[in-house]
Amino acid sequence: MDGFEIDKRRVRAAFDAAAPGYDEHALLQREVQQRLLERLDWIRLAPRRVIDLGCGPGSALGPLAKRYRGARVAGLDLAPAMAVRARGQGRWLRRPWAVCGDMERLPLADRSFDLAVSAAALQWVNDLDQVFAEVRRVLAPGGLWLFATFGPDTLKELRAAFAAVDGGDAAHVNAFIDMHDIGDALVRAGFADPVMDQETLTLTYPDFRSLLRDLRGIGVRNALAGRPRGLLGPRRLRAVEEVYASRYSEQGRLPATWEVVYGHAWVPDAPPPSRVSGPVIPIRPAR
After folding, report:
1. Running along the chain, 287 residues long, what does each successive block of 10 average in pLDDT?
2. Where are the alpha helices (DSSP H) in the chain?
3. What region does 250 belong to: left with phi over 0, alpha with psi -120 to 50, or beta?
């Protein structure tokens, strides 16, 4: 990530602030989530315990509970306000369990889930190997890890516009990991039969401010620790806006590219060595 790390405190604060109005701006995230869950149509699985990692306001918890009616469905998110919203999903007799936690230090017991999913959250971690090791630890033998994240072409127009204004010296858009590197990380974590693919989705906006409003509305802000300060004054932001419009405007609309990377892999029958990195929250099996 160009020498910078994700500042988790800044990420948590951004998503806490975005939680109340998140759904209004999360068109792309909902589409990615829907496409991810549709992949379960082609996978034979009857999990008793399911968790959504980086669940946000919990919009996937209802569809997962409907798909796997006998399963206990849970969610985890870094932002407390998102976890609170997730707990309010579903009917009151079957409210999902949700906890605030970091994917790099899952507060979950070994082999406590049969299916783990994650849509559009892995770009907010610093150590992908650590995350995959943690997911493998909390999945039972034969369990499935299914996720979607974003690749290097994501927001390439915004990145180029900032680079043009800053001379390529300042990081204003978080880095994204290449699909092949993600696949390699799955293998290093000990997952079996990894499958990776990607697609490109493009949203268009009437103007630059609408694009920024949507990004801020879903909590997407620069969260790189060590990022340069004082570079986003009104004058500089106007310069970025002018570059973006002059380079990319098409029929009065501004495109924003998202490279969506999908992956899934299985936990082998032999369980991994026990290694709990956070406080353990045991999950009772569904009755």
Report:
1. 71 88 87 96 95 95 93 95 88 78 96 97 94 98 97 93 76 76 97 96 94 83 48 80 95 95 92 46 40
2. 8-18, 22-25, 27-38, 61-67, 80-87, 128-138, 156-166, 179-188, 208-217, 234-248
3. beta
Give the tokens for residue 145.
């890890």
Distance of CA 147 to the CA centre of its chain: 8
Sheet of 192-205: strand order equals 97-100, 72-77, 49-53, 113-119, 139-150, 254-266, 192-205
For residue 243, the 8-state DSSP code is H
DSSP letter, residue 272: P
Amino acid at 85: R
Residue holding tokens 């990692």? 53
pLDDT of res. 93: 59
Write the CB contacts of 191 (distance below 8 Å, at least 6 apart in sequence). 132, 136, 145, 265, 266, 267, 268
